[in-house]
Protein: Urease accessory protein UreF
Amino acid sequence: MTGDPELQALLRLTAWLSPAFPIGSFAYSGGLERAVADGLVTDAASLAAWIGTLISHGSVWNDAVFLVESHRCQAEPARVAEVAALAEALAGSRERHQETLLLGEAFLAAARAWPDGVFERLPDKVAYPIAVGAVTGAHGIGPEKALAAFLHAYASQAVSSGIRLGVAGQKDGVAVLAGLEQRLLEVARRAATSTLDDLGSATVQADIASLRHETQATRLFRS
Structure:
């Protein structure tokens, strides 16, 4: 790196987890569309509760744990391959599996603009949090910072989905993000010291919504 390493790392992290980074995350709702159709999410308050629960106790928490583990072992190809296989196996539905693998593939393809040996150490296809964790780790970005940006990117995308689905306006969406800030920080700190033993979720309704979305006739999102 040249110049200020911390500032350069911040710029890269901002670019990789920006909504403008070409991974196509805007096309997925992670089951939120089905939750809206089923009346589980109806307004800004229930949208905030849905997002916050997934971050603290659901699939997003597991993604955070996988991100940290791949960040930790990105220099060990055999180990990162094992973690990648576990992350793929824990995808709870066909659409969830498709989403995380396609986002991971798109992330790695775009992140190659910043050359690094990490791309040769990863399997051909990896889940999105594995890709983000390995690349941020290889570029010397601390796990807590990577987690905070990753979780915020998820929350921002989920809020955007909620706005597109008509359960919140833009002003309400900003308020939801502001209200989630402390939770994002707490989960980032907790996940930064996690191990694979901390994997686990308790969001059955969200898992069912993801499965039910597969048969939804009219939809805006791919998951």
In short: The chain has eleven helices and no strands.
